[in-house]
Amino acid sequence: MFKMISKVNEDLQKERSKCTFNTEELTNFLDGGAQNAERRRKLENKVLSVPGILDEVPEEYLSHKEKYENAIRKGTLLYRTLEAAQDPTQDEDDTVILHLRSTITTAVFRDYTPFGVHFSMFIPTLRNQGDEKQRAYWLERALKMEIIGTYAQTELGHGTFIRGLETTATYDPNTEEFVLHSPTLTSYKWWPGHLAHTANYCVVMAQLHTQGKNCGIQPFLVQIRDEETHMPLPGIKVGEIGAKLGFNTVNNGFIGFDHVRIPRERMLMKNAQVLKDGTFKASPNSKLAYGTMVYVRVLIVNNAAAILARAVTIAIRYAAIRRQSKPKPNEPEPQILDYVTQQHKLFIGIATSYAYTIFARWLWNVYTKTTKDMAAGRLDNLPELHAIACVMKALSSSESTALVEQCRLACGGHGFMLSSNFPQLYGIATATCTYEGENTVLLLQTARYLVKTWSQKEKGLPLSSSTAYLAERSLPEKWDSSLDGIIRAFQRVSFGKLSNSVSSMEQYVKSGMSAEDAWNKASVQLIAAAEAHGRAVLLSVYKSEMDQRVATLSAPLKTVLMQLVDLYFVYWTLRNMGDLLLFTQLSEEDVRKLQRRYEDLLEKIRPNAVGLVDSFDFRDEVLHSTLGAYDGRAYERLMEEAMKSPLNKEPVNVSFHKYLKPFMRGQL
Residues with catalytic annotation? Predict the structure, then answer.
């Protein structure tokens, strides 16, 4: 009845014909070269051609239990396909870029992969926290998927405050075993992905007790299910935490331990060790145990960019085919993408996704260098990396979440449909604001680093590269609207907010407050200072990286990419107008010029909007959207999806005869 039309929407086709640059060149730029783009596409084709790996019945019509079981089925298919497709000759740098650009799991799982934590947290923890012997045995088994693991840190009663975790691991020198125990309900581990019914091993972060002393949080490798029967082992209570806003195929779980004994060798001992007699040898740096969290926060920046890129692709394509209203009586309804308010809603989404994509590559390189330094015993750069990862995780996740919702709203009522994929994208995006560190807490961690940096500055000590601007004695006062001038202006805001925060805390202490109470009293100022620092770092890195990367690109592509940089800078200048008026010499006339510049940039980007999102090169299977498919046939797809509803399989539902008819006739 509702047959799909086989041609591309005319409006969308016209948009593509107006594009001033080669979209394939931009795709290759994002992939790190044409060869990488080709490899990625071949892998996508191979995986998505596997029978049964794509759903025939929309996921929203499955029960909670069916969603999980279907995800596990597809997950095993996906892993075996990817394992067979591995290229051992591929360059390590290319492998990283392909990993950062990978869309395979997104195509297969509309919600989220059921094995994600195994690869993103369990394996990295074994690699980075296990000693040589532990890595040789356990890492090999994990990489082969002979065991499936998760990472259990967060508890029912404690999350980001790691020192407050209640799970204990008490060493018994008589048997050379650790005894894991959950002394309270709030000590139950809560949230780990795959924990409920998928994983059979778990890295457990617990308070180590030995020789009558608490030696702090340490990682332990714990078997939680029998490898043959998959039954929970004695003393272990494990299950699922229930349905959530998103991530319902991840199988998040809880686990409690009732005096569970594990061998001494199951403590991951690369950094800290417990000897046979119970002697504790501390790690050279306590923060080394938190390396997995830093790693995941680095990945979250990239994931936030990718989630937003999908959302803005859907919204831009829909805005190109949707026509609405008649501002000019004798002309046809315009595309809603022609309305400047729509451009204002959406183009910042494009610019932001590109900004964080570029920043994520830079941050990955910083992380890689720092981990190599750590392996060589050089820990000097770890605090700076931790501070940057914290603030950028907070900024990228919150911005991505807000802009995904903005994209949904820009699509009107149709964006409310699950088939648009906006609700699912929002569920995945907003989760990043709380997992791996709640954003406010992470901002305060960055603020603590900045306050220490301020103290170093006051003493004339050298500062890290990302905070070096704080040591400048004469930060600019005169307003400069160039990109470099805007960077300096945001550095001035960061300087001013941090200075005010430190001054407030000092005054509170002088008034008789404890240092802890003074910190709490000034905490709103402190998170604002952390955000300002993060914004200054982001702008600086975005511009410097783009200056280097666009040098080899064609003039048309270079022009449009730098327009995005310009748009991002001007947008945040106007957005942070109050701070800039307070800490710089920004004037009313400057604001008017910036507003005009912003509107001109929207006009310049308009012809290339579809080309910019096409260049992400997302397959329809990745977008999972009736509104955002490449062919632009949104209305036909909406109707086709509607007809998949189980309620449309019969003309009269049984509830009519059971309830409605008696009710309407007064017989209920």
Answer: 436
